[in-house]
């Protein structure tokens, strides 16, 4: 026990002791686990992972399957909204004949970008305001640190936040913003597309830290996993090198689907093997539904454990990813985008423009009837303005003539 010093102010020590007692009482009332029990559970979970690795891989895959199936319709609409945002041709254009128009109305992209520009303009050069009532110097210090780390030379927060919001305005949910500290460079934000994140379907609106779990999936290069093993992050990576990676019933995480969202075609590289890696954060349960760890993380690659379960050390965060929606739903985490209600209207506008243009083409360039027997060259049937034909004498004297059709027929043909 420290000796009592009458000249020392005991206020801070008493406040620290008071907060420790309050945390202990709150933990007992809410059923939270203390540090000692958490360490014991982590040790037991790691031992269990060594004995029954398949349980953790199966548990993670079951969580992914639950999230994918529960959000099937939501993901379909989000994918549709993203195609419309990119102003890709409507799907029914694939059935058009070569002569038919394929006009795309340039509206959705501009609408979303207008909203994104408004978000970006809202950030002033000094948008941070940090105050500390107890110690003003601390507040000033952290404000300077964050202004430096969030500027355009480091984390590029304004640009990254605007990009994340652009996705939210387009499909209803933002890009996942994952903070990262890079030694020698500083603070950075990684943006991950929503299709690579699997949340608990019971996650609450406006609360990205709610739900039982959060899973991030990526196709990682083999050499990245090997480097992680050298740094001590992963283990036993070699056994997944030649393993066939199962995607399951998730059509959004196939390499073909990921490439298609970028407007590309997936091409397998001969010297670049890629492994589907899944990082789990959240509550870990045993086969009977009992809790093994209240807040843990582990990683699998090709269905094999490469990072054993361990407790999350963050005090305020359950997982690193943060997503949001400018127009949230009242019942589910995924919100609504600007384009959600105009999908059919935009496609109808494109179709109407195509029909109108097709009709004009029939008026300007009507069908031509050609008498092949009157041509010197019977194969010379192509027409263009000012075209001259070499013809023979015929009874009626007409080697070609325009076919007159009324406007109703023209409209019907344009379909």
What does this structure look like?
With 415 residues, the protein is α+β, with helices and mostly antiparallel strands. The chain has two domains: 34-341, no CATH class; 345-414, no CATH class. The chain has eleven helices and nine strands. The protein has helices at residues 11-30, 35-51, 53-70, 72-85, 108-121, 136-149, 157-171, 222-230, 255-261, 343-364, 407-414; strands spanning 176-182, 186-192, 197-199, 213-221, 274-285, 291-301, 304-311, 368-370, 400-402. The strands form three sheets. Strands 3-4-5-6-7 form a five-stranded antiparallel sheet. It is elongated. The mean pLDDT is 85.
Number of domains: 2
Figure out the total of helices: 11
Which percent bin holds the helix content? Answer: 25-40%
Main pleated-sheet profile: 5 strands, antiparallel
Which structural class do you get from the secondary structure elements? Answer: alpha+beta
The total count of strands amounts to 9
Low-confidence parts: none
Radius of gyration: 32 Å
Beta fraction of the residues? 15-25%
Round the mean pLDDT to the nearest integer and report it.
Answer: 85
Measure the end-to-end span.
91 Å
Q: What form results from the Cα inertia axes?
A: elongated
Query: What's the arrangement of strands in the largest beta sheet?
Result: 3-4-5-6-7
Query: What is the H/E string?
Result: HHHHHHHEEEEHHEEEHEEH
């Amino acid at each position: 026990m420290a000796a009592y010093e009458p000249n020392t102010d005991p206020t801070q020590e008493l406040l620290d002791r008071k907060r420790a007692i309050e945390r202990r009482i709150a933990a007992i009332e809410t059923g939270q686990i203390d540090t000692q029990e958490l360490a014991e559970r982590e040790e037991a979970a790691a031992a269990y992972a060594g004995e029954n690795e398949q349980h953790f891989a199966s548990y993670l895959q079951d969580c992914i399957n639950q999230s994918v199936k529960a959000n099937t319709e939501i993901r379909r609409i989000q994918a549709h909204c993203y195609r419309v945002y990119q102003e890709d041709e409507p799907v029914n254009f694939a059935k058009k004949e070569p002569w038919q128009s394929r006009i795309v109305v340039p509206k959705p992209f501009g609408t979303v970008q207008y909203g994104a520009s408004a978000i970006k303009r809202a950030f002033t050069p000094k948008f941070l305001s940090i105050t500390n009532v107890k110690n003003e110097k601390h507040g000033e210090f952290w404000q300077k640190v964050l202004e430096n780390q969030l500027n355009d030379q480091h984390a590029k927060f304004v640009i990254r936040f605007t990009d994340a919001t652009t996705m939210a305005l387009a499909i209803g949910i933002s890009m996942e913003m994952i903070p990262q500290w890079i030694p020698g460079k500083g603070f950075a934000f990684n943006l991950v597309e929503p299709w690579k994140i699997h949340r608990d379907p019971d996650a609450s609106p406006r609360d990205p830290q709610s739900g039982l779990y959060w899973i991030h999936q990526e196709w990682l290069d083999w050499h990245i996993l090997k480097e992680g093993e050298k740094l001590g992050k992963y283990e036993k990576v070699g056994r997944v090198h030649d393993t066939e990676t199962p995607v399951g019933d998730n059509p959004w995480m196939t390499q073909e689907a990921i490439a298609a969202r970028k407007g590309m075609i997936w091409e397998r590289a001969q010297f670049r093997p890629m492994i589907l890696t899944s990082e789990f954060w959240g509550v870990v349960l045993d086969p009977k539904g009992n809790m093994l760890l209240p807040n843990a993380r582990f990683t699998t690659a090709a269905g094999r454990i490469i990072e054993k379960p361990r407790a999350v050390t963050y005090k305020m965060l359950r997982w690193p990813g943060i997503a949001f929606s400018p127009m949230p739903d009242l019942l589910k985490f995924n919100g609504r985008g600007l384009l959600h209600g105009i999908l059919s209207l935009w496609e109808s506008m494109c179709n109407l423009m195509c029909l109108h243009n097709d009709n004009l083409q029939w008026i300007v360039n009507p069908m031509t009837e050609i008498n092949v027997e009157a041509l010197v060259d019977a194969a010379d049937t192509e027409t263009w303005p000012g075209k001259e034909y070499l013809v023979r004498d015929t009874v009626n004297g007409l080697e070609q003539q325009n076919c007159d059709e009324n406007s109703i027929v023209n409209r019907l043909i344009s379909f």
